[in-house]
Amino acid sequence: MIPINAYPAYIRGGKLHLKYLSRYPQQRIRETIELMEKHRGRKVTRERLIGMLREIFPSEHDLRVINLIYYSLLVFYKLSEEKLSFTTSGRIRVRINDEWDLRLLFYQWVQETFGGFIPIEERESAMLRFCEEYGVRRDALESVLAGGMLRGYKLIRRTSIVPSPEDIIAVSNFLLIEKTLGLSDSATIYFYDVSRKGSLIKDMIFRSKRARLILEFKEKNNMLICSLSGPLQIFKHPSPIYGEYISCILVGSLAAHRKWRLRAWVRYRKRKALYEISSYDSRIRLLEPPWKYHGKRRKIEAFDSEIEMKIYNLLRRIFPEARILRESEIISTEDGTIFIPDIVVEKNNRKAIVEIAGFWTENYAKKKREKLDAAYRSGIRDLVVVADKKLSKHFRNTQYPVLYFDKSLAIARSLRQAIGNILTSKRNYQTDTIRPSK
Amino acid sequence: MAKVFIRKRELELEIDFEEDESRIILILDKIPFVRYDEFSDTYRALPCAYPELISALRNSGIEVISDISSDWSLDIDLREPLVELRPYQREAVEWLRKNRFRGVVVLPTGAGKSLIAIYALYLLRMKTLIVVPTIELMHQWKSKIRSVLRIRDDSVCFWGGGYRALCGITITTYQGACKRDFLVRAMDKFGLVVFDEVHHLPAETYLEIAKRLVSPHRIGLTATPERIDRRDRFLPLFVGPIHYGARVSELVRSGYLAEYEYRKISTYMDKEEWRTYRENMRIYREYVRSNFPNLTGRRAFDMVVKMAWKDRRAKEALEARMKAKAIAMAPKSKIAKLNEILTKHRDDKVIIFTRLQRTAHLISYTFGIPVITANVPKSIRRKIFSLFRSGRITKIVSAEALDEGVDVPDASVGIIVSGTSSQRQYIQRVGRVLRPKKKKAIIYELVTAKSFDEFMSKARKGLIGEDS
User: Fold this and answer.
1) With an 8 Å Cβ cutoff, is A232 touching chain B?
2) Is there a single domain that holds both residue A273 and residue A171?
3) Which positions in chain B touch A407 (Cβ < 8 Å)?
4) Neighbours of B286 (CB within 10 A)
5) How confident is the model at residue B407 (pLDDT cuts 50, 70, 90)?
6) Which pLDDT tens digit goes with each residue over B154-209?
7) pLDDT per residue over A421-436, tens digit each?
8) Is residue B83 classed as helix, strand or coil in its secondary structure?
């Protein structure tokens, strides 16, 4: 996600407006690509690049726009850092690995030679003396002391082909909407003419649950209305992570669907404003996610509860060679309900289902037991239940193994044995398994 | 018998109950930070309400079944602290004990506030979280705890600054502790929380730390509890009552703080600097006069900032003001004066304070003095600081990074080259050199005459209101 200094937004009349790159002639955008191509393979710093981009847009005073162009270009290019490492060649030889090594060497020399500081009148001779003693170039030392870098950054292209101005604009539009959603408290998307509603809904339910967000769906005249708000709290924690989750869940859907309208309530500069955009808007006619060109999508790694996170990490530790999947399957049980196992451990095409029953009310424990019994009756035999010790009275006489944990969570050995038995047995469960869409 | 179930749920507590619902609802409605949630049809509470919640329910004869851990006993042996408390420290510990270890202790910088908190830790023998403003302070706290309580190195751990561990005594920064990631794990892990430099806590995001921990015992330490935004009113609510201990003058009299001498040195801009300064201030003032004739000072400035993104002239006015400010804060004569002072104190440990990073870097470049600013990598900052503490470096220049918290036992000279109008910053900076020592501490303040550097200097000493 782009930083706030690359987010050219302003609020007017309670609405949030963005400065899209589509307002510039494509020739200008082409010049930025030419600039990058010209410096490809050469040493250049970030500051220098931004300075040169500013020269292409002399009348643009909003530095955030220039930064946005820079970050959009970074989807296709990157600055690869070169390591600085040399040994001083003077009377005293010291290994220098970066600018700070040289600075610290100089400061300590100043302390030993002058008692902590160089009087102004002796500065010139002191500099000459240090450079002579250590065999360091004077201009390099002056540059480092002034905060300069000796290291270079080499500009390289990440993609095999040169991006077009349309690519830059499409990516910048995506980055802008992604950031806007990242700053939002709530967002609603109206999807029109959705062909695979089921998979879209399933995908969103999965991801919003994992991100601890509130998700609501409505269907109206061939239109699917999807509202996301977060977090699932009464006393809202102002963590930016929830906005980032909203963005993570929604922004991919925008690029994947043709017709939509988006409304989001955004917190920007301590104010709340409404942001609205639709796929019909000519300013975002071009919209492509960075992962179309390279890289991977961000995954949501939030857990339902602390205990789920701990057990997930424990399983990863005790079965390092197995795949540990969270809520990866939807299983229809014989009584018509749906069972989504918390964790599935998969190894050599064998699966073990781990269901967690954390601490809660007696009513919850009863329902959980009923659901697990129904799943067992539906043929799910490779099931291990990990339950809070306080719920033990509700899980007596089960046909599947139940392991109890207390706050010490000392169940590694029994978990290894129970799951190991399943993974090495030849039996496999047969159920109506539906995989959620990617 | 009525039962109430309480569990952790996404940085909150979820409360549900069985039987005798109306009685329980009446009890819950009276407790602050407990609310009904329509979405889940349960009650929700901020974790800080937990101790009150539990006692209210149990006092009413309701069974509480909860997954919140309340076993905070420390699993390490603490030996009686080696250091003896001074009378004012003993008084503060007693006061805390009477308040069930909830409260804010206000004492001058260098008076040994951390020792009070370590004593409280020793008396309570509970799992403790210590929240500090900087990574340097995390390391200082660790070594202090280890030396006072004589415990092993691995008994104290860090969260933040490249570390992610929770143990019996955990030290973290405000920045690290306010994140969801930390709070989810730490919510019920600690019985005692110590907020060092607690005046940082009331900031909107940092206050989340106090809200999201169930810890019944909370101690705040500061020399300057007041805040300009008046959010210090949250301290009694989330930490506890405020206890004002001994003052600087009393501690200097009894020899617990170093005697100090304050020297104000006026400097002047040269002709060229004066001309540029006046010209830039004229641009700014003219803009204010023509656009906001009824506004002055801070209010006018805020309006110019607001206009700057759309009005080109406002932006130019703002830039002109910044240029003028930079000149007034570091004219050539200040550098010359600094040269004189440094020559005079060649053998002393000196801390130079500046307002702008640019000025700090200029001083570092000119005199070959190590610089500590927010831009300097953390590992290098730590290295420079340890060299300074050990005496292998005796001069250091900082742009606000050393303003508070950092313990420099034998620095005897402080030079304020430039600063903000904040009284808090001034008190904290002076406090850096007040740790008890044989020598008298000296604080120099370089002020550019006839400029707003002079105005800022007066404001930070409380001679002018900060809003004017």
Assistant:
1) yes
2) yes
3) 69
4) 13
5) low
6) 899 999 878 889 999 999 999 999 998 899 889 999 999 999 999 999 998 899 99
7) 888 876 554 443 434 3
8) coil
Q: Do A418 and A331 share a structural domain? A: yes
User: Domain check: are A356 and A235 in the same one?
Assistant: no
Residue-range definition of the domain harbouring residue A90: 86-145
Quick one: B92 exposed, middle or buried, by C-beta within 10 A (0-12, 13-18, 19+)? Answer: buried
Would you call A358 and B67 a contact, using CB atoms and an 8 Å cutoff?
Answer: yes
Decide if A283 contacts A24 (C-beta within 8 A). no
Residues A29 and A130 in one domain: no
- Which residues on A lie below 8 Å from B9 (Cβ)? 305
Number of domains in chain A: 3
Asked if B335's CB is within 8 angstroms of A61's CB, the reply is: no
Question: Cβ separation of B384 and A104 shorter than 8 Å?
Answer: yes
Residue A409 has pLDDT above 50, yes or no: yes
Judged by DSSP in three states, B378 sits in: helix
- Give the start-end residues of each E strand in B67-122: 102-106
What pLDDT sits at residue B465? Answer: 46
Hey, are the CB atoms on B180 and A103 less than 8 Å from each other?
A: no
Q: Which residues of A are less than 8 Å from B10 in CB distance?
A: 212, 231-233
Domains for chain B: give ranges and CATH numbers: 3-66 (3.40.1170.30), 87-253 (3.40.50.300), 260-267+331-460 (3.40.50.300), 271-329 (no CATH)
Tokens for B54? 């539990």
Record: contact A360-B5, CB cut-off 8 A:
yes
Q: Are A228 and A183 in contact (CB under 8 A)?
A: no
Contact partners, residue A203, CB within 8 Å, separation at least 6: A436, A437, A438
- Structure token digits, residue B301: 């400035």
ipTM: 0.74
pLDDT at A405 over 90: no
Sign, CA dihedral B153-B159-B165-B168, equals: positive
Tokens linked to A246: 């909203």
